[in-house]
Amino acid sequence: MFVLYKRQRSYMVNSEGICTKEKKTYETTRKVESGPCIIMDLDVLQEQIDNTPILAERVEVTEKLPELQTILSSNGMITIWTEEYYRSNFDEVSYSKLIPDFLAYYECHIGKKMFYGIIRDGNFPSTILSHLDTVRMEAELYQGIYDEYIQKIPHVFSNTAAAVVSHEILGHILELDNYYFYGYSNLINAIERLSVNVYDDPQEIKQLGLSIRDDILNVTQKTILFEGGKFTGELIGGSSKQLACARSFRRNSFAIQALPRMSTLIVESIFDNTAYPKNFVLITNIRRASVYHKTGKVLFYVTDANLVLDGNRVCKISEFCIETSIVSFLDKLKALAYSHQETLILQCLKKGQVINCGIKTNDWMLEF
User: Fold this and answer.
1) What is the DSSP letter of 350?
2) Are the beta carbons of 225 and 219 closer than 8 angstroms?
3) Domain enclosing residue 67, as ranges
4) Are 191 and 141 contained in the same domain?
5) Which one of 154, 194, 202, 270 is CB 3.0 to 4.6 Å from 263, fit for a cystine?
6) Closest by CA position to 136, among listed 115, 105, 106, 107
7) What is d(CA 121, CA 117) in angstroms, rounded to the nearest whole number?
8) What is the CA radius of gyration of the chain?
9) 246 and 262 share one domain
10) pTM reported for the whole predicted model
11) What is the C-alpha to C-alpha distance for residues 133 and 268, in angstroms, rounded to an integer?
12) Parallel, antiparallel, or unpaired for β 312-317 and 196-200?
């Protein structure tokens, strides 16, 4: 038996006020091929959570929000996220013990400049204050670079950043459940315009724990999603012609029902004549990325970027955010010739399951 409860809260703090949002989710599920299980009633689950001691290092963020508000200038803003997870003990007949986990992190914003960190103790307002000072010192210079270059010249995603783009924009869209539930068949033409081959190969990285057989004991095999730049009809987890999931399930040892998950996604440009631009923003790392399937939006928080002019790196660009629609992102995206031979490993969260996924990809260019 596995029970997952998650509570997410976000706080937006500026000099004029505090805005709080909260979201709660509950899941009660059966293990595959397990013996008799007790499905916990949600009211009972809530009572169990209320009686579960929280972690000692948990920070009471709400008590510090007024203190943060007093240190903000008119153009400053702090966003804080907290996430609480409670999962049941791995037990077929008892749910008397819930295991809590807690995470809190923040972002400081002044204009387009931002700084982020993890909240680890009750003294975090002083840490945020020092980061705000850093933000203020860099904001004016950064704003000039942003206005003159970032919104006008292409962005090139390389290394880890390229891996994140392929994982989010291609991998998740081509997972069987997302493809059907969110109508991603209308994006196939846009993906074909990228002129890339896309495969999912469970046997590419054996240390990921899924190589010979998948979670329902089918022999694993390479799934060809796009070949010669054309959609084959195959998806991660099954076929576009069938509603049922048939293969490539991935989940943690205590996880909920089987899900279509990427194993090792391989993306290759089929052309080698796509030149890098003369002036561009080189993005090599993305801290956090999200595809919001219900709204059709995509969000990338860029942490490592450099301004390249006439082929030379001029300066490092501080953190910034790319937020746009999935359709618009795909329309502006181009595959670059260079493909990384190294296979990277990314942590991927989907419906409460965090797993390692492999990725091998070419670079990408986003045109403006």
Assistant:
1) E
2) no
3) 2-147
4) no
5) 202
6) 115
7) 12
8) 22
9) yes
10) 0.63
11) 43
12) unpaired
